[in-house]
Design brief:
35% of the residues lie in helices and 21% in strands. The chain is α/β, with parallel strands linked by helices. The longest helix has 22 residues. It is globular, with a radius of gyration of 21 Å. The site of guanosine-5'-diphosphate has 21 residues, from helix 1, strand 3 and helix 12.
Length: 423
């Protein structure tokens, strides 16, 4: 049996979905443990493109149990739309289970996300405006509404009415927004509840039983290490814990039950939204990477900020997540450049450091120390083995292993699930 976790090591969009889809093939169960529909996981399977936001990327494989864990925040309307979209493409969602402990994203969460971002002005975080932060805030503030409440008409109505007494005041008086009508929300959401009810269970029991039975379980990370509420570039982060530790609290699994942790990265770095980015190339190089790698958001369509790979970040991610292997994507993309830079350390106040600073003020003082590599200007999108890769690509990958202390297990040479080399 194996329990494997797939996490992002940068600022998201590393290509986690592609690996989840690939690894789901020999898994019995795929479990999302954090985030919500701020995630956008692209999968290209047999030439068909799928963009998943909430449903685990294992859904494309028949017969796998796909779980939305308790650590996820669920927008029921988005979930139903995504389920219907898959059904229309002939993909069954019968095996989808939703934790009754997961929290529900409410219309006022989405409105507050918008209003708070507007209010932050030039300090805005660049959120996806999907209500993620306000929903997690309510969870920790203990006024959240859980999926078990959603499917209980009486409890749900009571909670919506009580919450709106406060939320409407905040929306109107603090932000000058328009207040919500409780009865309208209750009626809208009761229709969602009816449709979703048959998928709702205490998923912790199911995950526990699967571990006991020695099944293969895959935990699907969303977002990434540097968007983590604790370990990311706070406050330019999301509101959950996407690191591997999030599996314990977001799916109800003890730490010793985790066997493997795969850290996904790109052969360069991208970021969508605001916040620091030491190796950013806000210039022609960044533009070239964006176009070569088609770096536009899966969720919001925003152009992604692009820059060189930062090994300081990946080393930090290796430690925080306990990575057992690396999965590196877009090796095809970066090789198209004549010259490639890899950040191996930072220079700060005249000293060379290898640690990612917590303080954004200190981080702003960091200048990347680069090593130079030559590109491998040949098409590698059909290469199937490590030995088949150009020498320059191998040199680049070897250096990443040395700097991070973690072995590369998977190499992405294209979008399709077939375009992956297993080392
Ligand atoms: P996720 O959020 O981590 O699942 O990643 P996204 O799906 O948001 O973004 C990754 C993008 O890179 C998608 O458009 C993928 O189709 C694409 N992609 C993933 N791996 C590779 C690769 O190895 N090469 C190329 N060219 N594209 C890739
Ligand atoms: P996947 O799973 C990239 C970013 C947003 C913003 C910050 C906070 O596809 O890798 P939020 O809406 O979560 O409050 O926004 O986090 N962000 C992501 N960036 N990929 C993601 O998910 C992201 N999820 C959130 O752009 O900067
Ligand atoms: Mg994404």
């Amino acid at each position: 049996m194996a329990t494997r976790v797939v996490v992002g090591t940068q600022w998201g969009d590393e290509g986690k979905g592609k690996y989840i889809d690939m690894l789901a093939g020999d898994s019995d169960m795929v479990v999302r443990f954090s985030g919500g529909n701020n995630a956008g996981h692209t999968i290209v399977a047999d030439g068909v493109k799928y963009a998943l936001h909430l449903i685990p990327s294992g859904i494309l494989h028949k017969g796998k149990t796909c779980i939305i864990g308790n650590g996820v925040v669920v927008d029921p309307a988005v979930l139903l739309k995504e389920m219907k979209g898959l059904n229309e493409k002939g993909v069954s969602t019968d095996n989808l289970l939703i934790s009754d402990r997961a929290h529900v994203i409410m219309p006022y969460h989405k409105e507050l996300d918008e209003l708070q971002e507007k209010f932050r002005g030039s300090n805005s975080i660049g959120t996806t405006k999907r209500g993620i932060g306000p929903a997690y805030s309510d969870k920790t503030e203990r006024s959240g509404i859980r999926v078990c409440d959603l499917i209980d008409e009486e409890v749900f109505a009571q909670k919506v009415r009580a919450n709106l007494e406060v939320k409407n005041l905040i929306i109107e008086k603090v932000y000058g927004g328009e207040k919500f009508d409780a009865e309208q929300i209750i009626s809208e959401y009761s229709a969602y509840a009816k449709e979703l009810k048959k998928h709702v269970v205490d998923t912790n029991d199911i995950v526990f039983d699967a571990i006991e039975a020695g099944k293969n379980i895959l935990f699907e990370g969303a977002q990434a290490t540097f968007l983590d509420l604790d370990f990311g570039t706070y406050p330019y982060v999301t509101s959950s814990n996407p690191v591997a530790g999030g599996v314990c609290t977001g799916a109800g699994v003890g730490p010793v039950s985790i066997n493997e942790v795969y850290g996904v990265l790109k052969a360069y770095t991208s970021r969508v939204g605001a916040g620091p980015f030491p190796t950013e190339q806000d210039n022609e190089i960044g533009d070239t990477i964006r176009e070569l790698g088609w770096e536009y958001g899966t969720t919001t369509g925003r152009p992604r900020r692009c820059g060189w790979l930062d090994a300081v970040m990946i080393r930090y991610a290796a430690r925080v997540n306990g990575l057992t292997a690396l999965a590196i994507n877009h090796v095809d993309t970066i090789g198209k450049l004549d010259k490639i830079k890899l950040c191996v350390a930072y220079k700060k106040d005249g000293a060379v450091i290898k640690h990612f600073p917590s303080s954004l003020k200190e981080l702003a003082k960091c200048e990347p120390v680069y090593e130079d590599f030559d590109g491998w200007n040949v098409d590698i999108s059909n290469v199937k083995t490590y030995d088949g890769l150009p020498e320059n690509a191998k040199k680049y990958l070897k250096r990443i292993e040395e700097l991070t202390g973690v072995k590369v297990k998977f190499i992405g040479v294209g979008k399709d699930r077939e375009q992956t080399i297993t080392v």
